[in-house]
Write a structure and sequence with these properties.
By secondary structure, the protein is an alpha/beta fold. Among the domains are: about 100 residues, Rossmann fold (3-Layer(aba) Sandwich), CATH 3.40.50.1980; about 120 residues, Nitrogenase molybdenum iron protein domain (Rossmann fold), CATH 3.40.50.1980. The chain has 16 helices and 12 strands. The protein has a 5-stranded parallel beta sheet, with helices on both faces. It comes from Helicobacter saguini.
Length: about 350
């Protein structure tokens, strides 16, 4: 009996020692790794050890989920929450080129603290002098956090920054663009956010007037906007390029196809037989399209020479400035369509 008691006590002692060791180890791990060096594996944004140490207290601050605001619809409550902050000078890092251009248009450029290193953001003579925080597709988290912004306007390319910035108590806002109407709405939202509502209303009204002018005399043709020849990728209905086509009176044959840039088969394209073909970015010229698929030569657009290149970089930006380009596209088509 005595031996049994000794064995049982030995077992209890071993279990207790193991638990104590595990707890001590966990405590040490928690202490040594108070902040992760790699803050977002999805976006691969990293901080060096010095920066991590300096920002340790902010990293542990409690961040409310409401700090990430996607202003895809009229969210007046979210705007009112942050408008007092954004009205101050140098409070926003703006990673979205379209939002940068809008802020200048409505006279709210003083709220900009820094932007991505990117060419041709209007007005170039002014934006070229602003502080840069990495590139459009690869923003520098360390620089952004070091500038201590109150709000960061992100894009779909930098959405991976959201969680990282929230760890430091920095709010993020995203203004999606998939139509001309969404550009109009974003003008008003940024106006309310920065205390420039009256200016924004004027800019939005001017933009909307031009949209209505373009809609007034539709082209009345069918068309498709090809993004890539191999594979055959086009812009679907819920995209800005598609809305541009519809606005000038060209029915997008891929409007009802699921996806922003769906892959079409040749039979679908030939069956729809569009009057006009537009291309850009990953397609250099008409010959490249024919090389990708010889069957394209039977399309009306190819036979009649109604194949046109459009500068997509400007169209995809989603800035109010594209409306003049859209107007020019329509005027050119009137002269060229056969």
């Amino acid at each position: 009996m005595k031996k049994l008691f000794v064995v049982v006590m030995a077992i209890f002692w071993a279990i207790g020692a193991s638990a104590w060791a595990a707890q001590s180890k966990d405590s040490k791990i928690s202490k040594d790794f108070n902040i992760e060096s790699k803050v977002d594996s999805k976006a691969d944004f990293t901080l060096d050890s010095k920066t991590s140490a300096n920002l340790d207290s902010k990293a542990n601050a409690k961040v409310d989920s409401k700090d990430f605001i996607t202003l895809a619809s009229n969210d007046s409550k979210a705007l009112k929450t942050d408008s007092k902050v954004a009205k101050n000078k140098g409070t926003m890092v703006v990673l979205d080129p379209a939002s940068i251009e809008i802020l200048y248009m409505i006279g709210a450029e003083d709220s900009i603290l820094a932007i991505p290193d990117m060419k041709n953001i209007e007005p170039v003579e002014k934006t070229s002098k602003l502080e840069k925080v990495g590139t459009f597709t690869n923003p520098n988290l360390e620089k952004i956090v070091g500038l201590k912004p109150k709000i960061v306007v992100i894009t779909s390319y930098s959405v991976g920054l959201k969680d990282s910035l929230e760890r430091y108590g920095i709010k993020t806002i995203m203004l999606p663009v998939n139509s001309l109407k969404s550009i109009h709405d974003n003008i008003l939202k940024l106006g309310e956010l920065t205390g420039k509502s009256e200016n924004a209303k004027k800019v939005a009204a001017d933009f909307n007037a031009k949209v209505e002018q373009i809609k007034a005399d539709p082209i009345g043709k069918s068309g498709v906007f090809i993004y890539s020849g191999t594979p055959l990728m086009v812009f679907g209905g819920d995209t800005l390029p598609s809305d541009v086509l519809e606005t000038i009176g060209i029915k997008n044959i891929a409007k009802d196809v699921v996806g922003e840039k769906p892959i079409l088969n040749t039979e679908y394209l030939i069956g729809k037989n569009p009057d006009i073909i537009f291309y850009g970015l990953r397609v250099k010229d008409k010959d490249e399209l024919l090389k990708a698929n010889a069957a394209f030569k039977h399309l009306k657009a190819i036979k009649n020479g109604n194949v046109y290149h459009l500068e997509l970089h400007a169209l995809l930006r989603g800035s109010p400035s594209i409306i003049d380009q859209v107007l020019q596209i329509k005027e050119d088509l009137r002269k060229k369509i056969k």
